[in-house]
Amino acid sequence: MRLSDIQIRDPFLLTVPEDGGYVLFGSTDNDIWRPPATGFDCYRSTDLEGWEGPIPAFRPPAGFWSDRNFWAPEVHRHAGRFFMLATFKADGVRRGTQVLVADRPVGPYVPWSDGPVTPRDWECLDGTLHVDGAGEPWMVFCHEWEQVHDGEVCAVRLSQDLRQAVGEPVLLFRASEAPWAVRLRHRRVPEDVAAYVTDGPFLHRLASGGLVMLWSSLGSRGYAMGVARSVTGTVRGPWVQEETPLWADDGGHGMIARTLDGRLLLTLHQPNDTPHERTVLRELVETAQTVRLRG
């Protein structure tokens, strides 16, 4: 298979040096917007060109609380295991990010946290893991526009075993702070309400020690992805938004992977239109302050 053969949203590329290859995760249901949800599949490759799959990475166990909106699985190594952070929802239950775990990169993943670790009375999605310089794990996530209108990116500290949140979430920034983000026009948004989307945060530590965050919203040419920079180099920020998006043309929800030979790859989906979404890989270069597309 080629990437052009694989329908996927919110792609996340895990590099597995001990296996000499890569595992691609993402929102893989044919229609992620409607129940019932199936789970998450993944795909393996040794060269980023040919892919093997689909491989079932997660299937909900009997009695699992969610039946819809299985979105944006990310897999991170932590304490010798593989932890998946993924978004789920159910009828009458707010959307949130739960932690799952496996002993192998491809799974099978099983629930680890007791339901979502995002606040139970918030509409949340797209949690990502960040371990700070002191070794403290944080989850950075989005507080959805559907609840707060001006979508927020927030952070909450996690326990060392990643089973639960520790303390209260902190607000990092709002979508409208980005000069490139445009107002959402939606049938569920009154004309007198300014709504802005936040999606898909991902943090990257630069070789210089700086800390940047990719995140997505709507731009002038559709779905887009920008970069925010932490002034202090810590997850608490403050965060400064770059003037123009890193990716402007109907694609987003990106992350940064490192290839087996050490190059940086931007991974995102494009177009933002079901069922046509496909993974896009583009090489990145670092500066002392940020990341840029090569060429």
Strand portion: over 45%
Number of domains: 1
Determine and state the CATH class. Mainly Beta
Query: Tally the helices: what do you get?
Result: 1
Secondary-structure element pattern, one letter each: EEEEEEEEEEHEEEEEEEEEE
List the strand order in the largest sheet: 1-2-3-4
Architecture, according to CATH? 5 Propeller
Uncertain regions spanning at least 5 consecutive residues: none
Identify the CATH homologous superfamily: Glycosyl hydrolase domain, family 43
- The CATH topology label is Tachylectin-2, Chain A
Q: Give the overall shape, derived from the CA principal axes.
A: globular
**Share in helix:** under 10%
Estimate the mean pLDDT confidence. Answer: 97
Based on DSSP secondary structure assignment, what is the total number of beta strands?
20
Radius of gyration: 18 Å
**What structural class results from the helix and strand content?**
mainly beta
Biggest pleated sheet = 4 strands, antiparallel
Q: How far is the first residue's CA from the last residue's CA? A: 27 Å
